[in-house]
Design a protein that fits this description.
- It is a single chain.
- By secondary structure, the chain is an alpha+beta fold.
- The protein is about 50% helix and about 10% strand.
- It is built from 16 helices and ten strands.
- A five-stranded antiparallel β-sheet has the order 1-2-4-5-3, with helices on both faces.
- It is elongated and about 100 Å long.
- The termini are far apart.
């Protein structure tokens, strides 16, 4: 006995066992009689759009008064004038439909079950993301629902070549994914590779949304911290990447898009670069790159100068530590690196009404008392304060932590091996960048390696729209 054969009561008993209806209070079962036919509705409470469902049932009653059509497809054409209606012909498809929020109708006389997409997801407003803010530009952002996210991209790209294909991942979660790309602008081999990887996911669920997807589909080396993907919560950024030939992956319950393939220069780019004139955008981009380089090397170089004061150029003697050094500078740097992350986690978990008092207390304790107590020197506090602020010049958190881990490695090697340790650490960082491949196998430092002069120039200089189109041609 299954849900498609037998009498309506036998099919209903099979559904009750299939969905474990006796234990699930939030799965609604509503029995109706339309004309001389029995109709049973199955839907998840919380996903039901009551107004639309009421209008659909009204059409059903009108059809029942005039006589129900004998063919299911004829019934859907006449009685379902709106909403996405599809017949369900397998138990797995039925389970996926109900548990994903679709409204399913079992009608006596029809072996197949009708699924209607009249879902109404609980969702927050489409507001600007806290992390990817811009000084000028659109103020909308992705939300946790898949359909509104695809609509935000469609609103910006009104082209028939924009394609969104759906997939499901996870044996238990059955998470919905949307893979978006522009036909003719992305290689077919890339699309096939992405689809094959997603179809072959061997995971019970995507608990952490896109991070779980990345670990299941695109596994990488744990010892290389540099990110292989770019994440964005901005629809305008996702649309721009699609037009440039990238692929975006939207995961249900996640308010961000995964962009592939991605190089280091793509990750460094920011939406602010494109909402200002070319000269201003170029200035912002170069400033961000320079700040990231300084954040990586400023503390290891300062530590190297502390150990070799004779290397300090004439006129820069003021950078040396004037007070007594009670704690090894390396220990000071490492403690402050941990303290900065500790303050970040504290700010995330602190109620908004207490965030300001906490910031004041942290500034007083770490900025004044720690120096007076002799634990830290003011010069080291100054450079670590610059590093802490510099981490926020780019929006990619994965890249920020990759630079942090590289900086800690440089500090340790420089402290124990001097200038040779600094050189060795720099070589290790360069090797991590050079041998880190993107999803398509293209170099992580493209267009530097392999070299492409025109594309490399575009990564450093923000060109106008017309100039960019000429360079692409």
């Amino acid at each position: 006995m299954d849900i498609f054969t037998g009498s309506i009561d036998e099919r209903l008993n099979a559904v009750n066992k299939l969905l474990n209806m006796e234990s699930n209070f939030d799965i609604i079962q509503r029995n109706l009689t339309i004309g001389s036919k029995k109709v049973v509705i199955f839907v998840i409470n919380g996903f039901l759009n009551s107004d639309l469902c009421e209008r659909i049932i009204e059409y059903f009653y009108n059809a029942g008064a005039n006589g129900m059509p004998h063919d299911l497809q004829d019934f859907m054409n006449k009685c379902v004038p709106f909403a996405d209606a599809k017949p369900v012909d397998s138990e797995q498809s039925f389970k996926d439909a109900v548990l994903s929020g679709l409204t399913c109708f079992m009608i006596e006389g029809y072996n197949e079950i009708i699924s209607l997409d009249i879902r109404q997801f609980p969702s927050r407003s489409v507001e600007e993301p806290d992390k990817d803010k811009v000084l000028r530009g659109s103020r909308d952002g992705f939300v946790e629902s898949l359909i509104p996210n695809t609509a935000l991209v469609r609103r910006r790209i009104r082209d028939e070549d924009l394609v969104f294909e759906t997939q499901k991942a996870g044996r238990s979660s059955r998470t919905d994914l949307a893979i978006g790309y522009m036909k003719g602008r992305v290689k077919e081999t890339v699309i096939e590779k992405v689809m094959d990887r997603i179809k072959n996911i061997d995971a019970d669920s995507l608990t952490m949304n896109q991070e779980s997807l990345a670990e299941a589909v695109f596994p990488g080396h744990w010892y290389n911290p540099f990110p292989k993907f770019k994440y964005t919560e901005r629809p305008d950024t996702a649309a721009a990447c699609l037009l440039e030939g990238s692929v975006i992956i939207l995961v249900d319950n996640s308010p961000s898009a995964m962009i592939i393939p991605t190089s280091l220069f793509d990750i460094i780019e920011d939406a602010n670069d494109y909402y200002f004139p070319p000269i201003t955008g170029t200035y912002l981009r170069l400033t961000r790159m320079l700040t990231n380089l300084l954040a990586l090397f400023i503390t290891p170089v300062f530590l190297m100068f502390i150990e070799n004061p004779e290397w300090i150029p004439r006129g820069f003697d003021f950078i040396m530590i004037k007070d007594d050094i009670n704690v090894n500078p390396l220990i000071q740097f490492l403690i402050l690196e941990l303290a900065v992350d500790g303050l970040k986690m504290a700010s995330v978990n602190t109620p908004s009404m207490l965030s300001t008092p906490l910031s004041v207390v942290a500034a007083i304790v770490f900025g004044d008392y720690t120096v007076q107590s002799g634990w830290f020197n003011s010069e080291i506090m100054l450079y670590m304060a610059f590093v802490a602020v510099a981490n926020y010049t780019q929006s990619n958190m994965e890249l920020g932590y990759a630079l942090k881990f590289s900086r800690i490695m440089l500090l340790i090697l420089t402290n124990f091996f001097g200038v040779w340790g600094f050189v060795a650490g720099t070589v290790v960082i360069l090797c991590a960048l050079m041998f880190n491949k993107t999803f398509t196998g293209r170099g992580y430092l493209y267009p530097l390696l392999p070299f492409n002069g025109i594309q490399l120039l575009k990564r450093f200089l923000r060109v106008s729209l017309k100039t960019n189109e000429k360079l692409q041609q």
